[in-house]
Design goal:
With 149 residues, the chain is mainly alpha-helical. Helix content is 71%, strand content 5%. The mean pLDDT is 89.
Length: 149
């Protein structure tokens, strides 16, 4: 049980470190966007459909700004997922009870449901019959074609 707690703590620490690294990256994106916005006089507004509209005079700067905004959006999504995982790990660390409970004992079923052996045998026999008839007809056709040549 102690080993499980140690493993949980390691996972929690790794998630926390990754969360800190991603937060630093997000701050860098925000700083870069602010710098680009001031340097190239880029204006950002929201569209009617909730999209981000970026306006500016320098095409390359606007495209760079859009790509950084897209990266920032993805990073925010990942950051939220990681924060959720961190919360779950935190609860798991505080909770020492097992999360696996057996609700009812297993029992042997009265009758098998699948596969029905007689059905498998009948289908196999029919398929074999059809394939063998087609094989015989094919062989006879080949013999007739050879005799005609």
């Amino acid at each position: 049980k102690k080993q499980v707690q140690v493993t949980k703590q390691k996972i929690y620490d790794a998630v926390s470190n990754q969360l800190n690294i991603m937060q630093q990256q997000l701050n860098e994106y925000v700083d870069t966007l602010a710098m680009l916005g001031q340097q190239y006089k880029i204006k950002v507004s929201s569209g009617n459909d909730g999209s981000v509209v970026v306006d500016g005079s320098d095409y390359k700067a606007v495209q760079l700004y859009k790509s950084i905004v897209a990266k920032q959006t993805g990073l925010i999504r990942e950051l939220n997922n990681l924060a959720s995982i961190k919360g779950e790990q935190e609860v798991s660390l505080k909770n020492s009870e097992s999360s696996l409970y057996v609700t009812e004992k297993a029992f042997v079923s009265d009758r098998r449901e699948k596969p029905v052996r007689s059905l498998v045998v009948v289908i196999t026999m029919l398929v074999t019959l059809v394939v063998s008839i087609l094989g015989v007809l094919l062989i006879e056709q080949i013999r007739e074609i050879k005799q005609q040549l």
